[in-house]
Amino acid sequence: MKMKFADLKHMLDPKSVAIIGASDKPDKVGHAIMQNYIDVGFSGPIYPINVTSDGKIMGYTAYKSILDVKKEIDLAVISIPAQFVPKVLEECGKAKVKGVVIVTAGFAEVGEVALQEQLVKISKKYKLPFIGPNCLGVMDTRSRNDTLFLPTYKIDRPKIGGVSFVSQSGSVGSSTLDLISAEGFGLARFISYGNAAVVDEVDVLNYLAHDPETKVIIFYMEGVRRGKEFIEVAKTATKLKPVVIIKGGVTSSGAGAAHSHTASLAGSSEAYDAIFRQFGFVIANDIEDLLYYAKVFDTQPLTTGNRIAIVTNGGGHGVLATDAVSKVGLVIPELSKDSKKVLRKKHAAIVSIRLPLDIGGDADEKRYMVALDTLENDPNVDAILLITLFQTPGADERLVESVIAHSKRSKKPLVVVSTGSTYTKSHTALMEAAGIPVYESPTAAAEALAALIKYAKYKAGMVV
Amino acid sequence: MQLMDYIAARGLLKKYGIKSIDSSYVRSADEAVTFSKGKPIVLKALSDKALHKSRNKLVELNLSKDSEIRQSFNALSKRAAKFKPYKILAQHMSAPGIEIIIGSKVDPQFGPMVMIGLGGIYVETFKDVALRVCPITKYDAQSMINQLKSKRVIAPDPKSVKLLEELLVKVSRMVTQNKISELDLNPIILHSSTYDAVDLRILK
Predict the structure, then answer these.
(1) pTM recorded for the entire structure
(2) Which of A218, A352, A446, B9 could disulfide-link to A290, CB 3.0 to 4.6 Å?
(3) Where are the domains of chain A?
(4) Are B182 and B166 members of one domain?
(5) Record: contact B131-A259, CB cut-off 8 A
(6) Domain edge (last residue) among B42, B74, B92
(7) Which residue on chain A is closest to B1 by alpha carbon?
(8) Residue A261: CB partners within 8 Å, gap ≥ 6?
């Protein structure tokens, strides 16, 4: 299949930006966008454009038209009323802009299909790709290119990292970004592509699959426009890096007057689910899963083995984690003879040397480390689910430091379960910042491990 | 979309090495008796207007004696009258076994897709099915079977897994090469190392 993809380089990492619709009036979207470029600290030149401008906008030299700038412009961000967008896009083409983000709404999503078609024609004429219309646009943590019209005091910006986030929807995009900013992992790129008139899910997936800054992709989508191309791109993308996906909108085109059992059973949402399974996506069931899976894929090595060792300083949590691990189809193994010998010698206090390994409510970091080192060397163990309940006297920042030190030398996937409030969270935040995925419940941790193992198997060509 | 004639559909399956149970149209009770040759048969009334044959009481199972066959033929003809035009199909009885469904449809976004699941009359109750886009590989077929909750029931050993894998790949090939819009092989009755497709619908 011969395929063409839009190059998103200049939209994500521009050297210069024109903001069309920039304004001194604080209630204008163009004002918020301009303010954000200033607040976030974009390093290249910023050119505010507004037909009503009389020389300065927000302290910057302003222009009535992008054609008046007469300098190289990589990206134009358009936020003006819909009916004027075609004219302005045409001018962007003439000014040899390299990419455009059209934030403005009021196109195909409200039935203005013809107006949107005009934009597509102009884009083809000038070979000028654009994202949108009706979108938030992009955020790039390294280049500090940020077309979001959401003020920095209302939505925190995530730190620099390796997870790229794609959201067709702006609202899911912005609220999830806000959540990501509180996570231990960082963001590489954010793309919200709205109506997908030119740049669509296929372009975005293809670009991020080959993007060296992107280690993990998380994706909220509402539908695919180019099904066959999407499949072709997905085949490559999911072999290169994990793509965690959630599809909103369970349509029922399979229901209604079906002629066959198969057609009535295999509706549109079943088809999407099948495509995701067949081509190695990691399927998320809700937005929380996107974040839970993102952090384990971002920080932990892959393994195709499904034998999970649980270590805990709380008996009940050990039981719950055992249940959760079995529920997702993973296995609690028997410890090796060597491990048993070591643990019996060093951990005389422990009554039963078996998994889940309950090292006692009085466990301190030393006891934890004996357990972790033993499991790291145990050939029967593929991954470790570590429970650290900080309510006990023995668990404090020394435990945090030891676990971080362990994770730096560990070659096995490690997830931590830590349930609790203020004291706990202040400690787990340190672990997360050091690249250890922490979960509040055993279920979330077990599901994250299961997703990691399933993806590893797919990547290795094993049947999942 | 048009329903393909049963016997023609059977011929197409055969071309791809997909076995279906011996079947023939019968125009009279006599022809049905002749078809049976003393072995148990099934009579089915086929009509475009009735998708659910069992729900519409258009199936007569396990008929051995000549008198039974005659009586059932006449009763079936009477019940089918409201679904005119119809034809009556005689089939040999399959040995009992696990019933599965294999089917296909064309998804508007992704193209032809093939499906397998626990079949028979409960197919829409349990909805235990797995779906993949065509053409499928052996790997896809294996992962489809793995995905089913009923995998230990329908494929309890490596031999039956292999049987189903091959069957799925054949169906995928047939569907792609013949522009089939929808296909139901429901049920396919599984025996220890073989199978019989005992009912089929192909929409082109």
Answers:
(1) 0.93
(2) A218
(3) 9-297, 302-459
(4) yes
(5) no
(6) B92
(7) A259
(8) B101, B103, B123, B124, B184, B186
Regarding whether B29 and B80 lie in a shared domain, the answer is: yes
Q: Mind telling me how many Å the CA of A34 is from chain B's nearest CA?
A: 39
- For each of chain A's 464 residues, which pLDDT tens digit applies? 667 898 999 999 999 999 999 999 999 999 999 999 999 999 999 999 999 988 899 999 999 999 999 999 999 999 999 999 999 999 999 999 999 999 999 999 999 999 999 999 999 999 999 999 999 999 999 999 999 998 888 888 899 999 999 999 999 999 999 999 999 999 999 999 999 999 999 999 999 999 999 999 999 999 899 999 999 999 999 999 999 999 988 655 544 456 778 888 888 889 999 999 999 999 999 999 999 999 999 999 999 999 999 999 999 999 999 999 999 999 999 999 999 999 998 876 666 789 999 999 999 999 999 999 999 999 999 999 999 999 999 999 999 999 999 999 999 999 999 999 999 999 999 999 999 999 999 999 999 999 999 999 999 999 98
- Residues B69 and B148 occupy one common structural domain: no
Q: In this complex, do B111 and A270 lie within 8 Å of one another by their Cβ atoms?
A: no
Q: Verify that B57 and B111 share a domain, yes or no.
A: no
Same domain, B123 and B182: yes
Give B103's contacts in chain A (Cβ within 8 Å).
260-263, 265-266
Instruction: Please say whether the beta carbons of B156 and B136 come within 8 A.
Output: no
Distance from CA of A263 to the nearest CA of B (A): 6
Nearest CB to A278; choose among B124, B129, B132: B132
> Which CATH number is B77's domain given?
3.30.1490.20
Does residue B14 fall inside a structural domain? Answer: no
Is residue B3 one of the residues assigned to a domain?
no
- How many A×B Cβ pairs under 8 Å? 92
Specify the CATH number for A302-459; select among 3.40.630.10, 1.20.1050.10, 3.50.50.60, 3.40.50.261.
3.40.50.261
Rounded to the nearest angstrom, the minimum Cα separation between B112 and chain A is 10
> Hey, of B182, B183, B185, B201, which one would you mutate to test binding to chain A, going by the most A CBs within 10 A of its CB?
B182
**Residues of chain A contacting B142 with CB distance shorter than 8 Å:** 463
Domain limits for position B76: 22-92
Closest Cβ opposite residue A260 in set B103, B131, B133: B103
Residue B167 lies in a domain: yes
Q: Nearest CA of chain A to the CA of B111: how many Å?
A: 8
Query: Which of B117, B131, B203 is opposite residue A259, by nearest beta carbon?
Result: B203
In a domain, B15, yes or no: no
Residues B86 and B102 both lie in one domain:
no
Structural domain tally of chain B? 2
